[in-house]
Amino acid sequence: MEYNVDKQKLHYGWIILIISFFVVASSLGIGRFSYGMLLPSLQEGINLTHSESGFIASANMLGYSLGALVVGSLVFRFGSRVIISVSLLGAGLSMMAIGFAGGFLSVSILRFITGFGSAGANIAVMGLSSLWVSKNYRGIANGFLVGGSGVAILFTGRLVPSIIGLYPEYGWRYNWFILGGMVLLIGFLSWILIKNRLQGHLASLGSSASNSADENINCPVFAVKDIISFPKVRIIAFTYFCYGISYIIYATFFVNYLVGEKGLTQSLAGDIWSTVGLLSIGSALIWGSISDKIGRPYALTAVYFLQGTGYVIAAVASGQVFMWVSAVIFGLTAWSIPGIMASYCGDLLGPRNATTLLGLVTLFFSIGSILGPSSGGFIKELSSSFASAFYLAAIFAVLGGMLSFMQRKKSSGGRDIDKKQALTAGVISKN
């Protein structure tokens, strides 16, 4: 891999990737996924019903949706460095404030703020990677970044039960203080280390200077209305919706399902969820690399069908070993879809439009993630079991796989929206 034209010993892109890994870990792994691990003690601490718990998770995703809608324009105006740092500041402070919360309404509002900040940091940093890494290595690079969520889940799966064990009454509050403080620390480091663009003649990672320049300079900047006009964009947006509504049901309620319906201890459930985190660290890296080789549509299809299988196993099987199998399947594929989607966005419209396009398709993902917890909690109240909610997750996972497979004939590698399509949309000059 050629790093840059000056043959420096260390390409600054590696620094970008490392800090970006921790941005994803804090904005998603801690900011969003710690909720599922904290939910049982949070429910007990402030007397939440299952429906209220689902609504709080939906409030978080509503904030994420609104953040996804505006992050592209904010990055264009202020730059990735500012948006990432400020977003993590808001997310960290709101998480710490939950430690003082006393009821359903206050937690819902704070989780909304956390969601908004998580979107700003995560989408901005994933879009930034399309600038710093060439398209030939974009899948594996974004897979590395998304693996930050797995590290955070592994960490919180160990930390949260330990703190609650030491402080049974107020441990859940202390957990929010600690985790929120970690998010603030990553926000501070982001302000110091992140750079908005390549410096001077520096080429993107895995590219020569000329190729890097071609990909960035020859790529037109599309308006939002023109981006939406591309049929493929609308299809992958709905595909991402399917992931949002399916995975969030599983991620939000699986630990509760193990403890409340399968009779597992909080500690054992934490071990299983930590295993998900451990396996998921490499899931996006592996599937991102696969997508670089076989194409984004084929990789997405395989992941969706595997996840659907895992959801069905959790719903149908009764033995503890099958819960482990379900968790392993989910862990091996968990965060691969966001990484592949981020790469797909860079492929479709080029690095200069990656953040805006990722924000738009993430809006659909977020809508699915809003509907998922509320639907799952409602189904639990009606059926007295989360198994029916996992069936719903499986249906959407299979639908996502089918839609992804439909795109295979249209994908040609490189930028998938060709010049003819751009001319039709009126986004570039015929000259």
What does this structure look like?
Helix content is 80%, strand content 0%. It is globular, with a radius of gyration of 21 Å. The protein is an all-alpha fold and 431 residues long.
Describe, in short, the structure shown.
The protein is built from 17 helices and no strands. The chain has 431 residues and is mostly helical. The longest helix is centred in the C-terminal third of the chain and has 33 residues, at 351-383.
Mean pLDDT comes to: 82
Shape estimate: globular
| Unreliable runs | 1-8, 411-416, 422-431
- What is the N-to-C order of secondary-structure elements (H for helix, E for strand)? HHHHHHHHHHHHHHHHH
Number of E strands: 0
Q: Which range best describes the helical content: under 10%, 10-25%, 25-40%, 40-55%, 55-70% or over 70%?
A: over 70%
List keywords for this structure.
0% strand, disordered N terminus, single chain, globular, mainly alpha, 431 residues, disordered C terminus
How is the secondary structure organized here?
Layout: H1 12-30, H2 34-46, H3 50-78, H4 80-98, H5 104-132, H6 138-166, H7 171-193, H8 209-217, H9 224-229, H10 231-260, H11 266-294, H12 296-316, H13 320-333, H14 336-349, H15 351-383, H16 387-406, H17 419-425
Helix pairs in contact: 1-5, 1-6, 1-7, 2-6, 2-7, 2-10, 3-4, 3-5, 3-15, 4-5, 4-7, 5-15, 6-7, 6-11, 6-14, 10-11, 10-12, 10-14, 10-15, 10-16, 11-12, 11-13, 11-14, 12-13, 12-14, 12-16, 14-15, 15-16
